[in-house]
């Protein structure tokens, strides 16, 4: 009886998730932009790391203290923030691969849970 109840509970719990997932069937980010080769992603990440390092150095050098000990920033600080934004753009191909992997793992996990709950339900009916 407990196994049958657990199977029904899991199915009732998962039905809203499945219907919401099917309702919003928009394209994923990696379907729009496509997945790049590993060499392209590697070069892009290398450029992104260089842009992050340059942005960090610019931001660090543009902050100084005045006579009262308060931090002052110069206009160069915004150039450093711009470098961080450019670095974010370079990391987009890696982000599309991460999204691809996460979506596939979540879909696989949901399928395993649904199949398992149906199996528990059938086992409960057979043991009856």
TrEMBL record:
Annotated keywords: Membrane, Transmembrane, Transmembrane helix
Superkingdom of the organism of origin: Bacteria
Transmembrane segments: 45-63, 75-95, 101-126
Record's protein name: Uncharacterized protein
Species per Swiss-Prot/TrEMBL record: Dyadobacter frigoris
Taxonomic lineage: Bacteria, Pseudomonadati, Bacteroidota, Cytophagia, Cytophagales
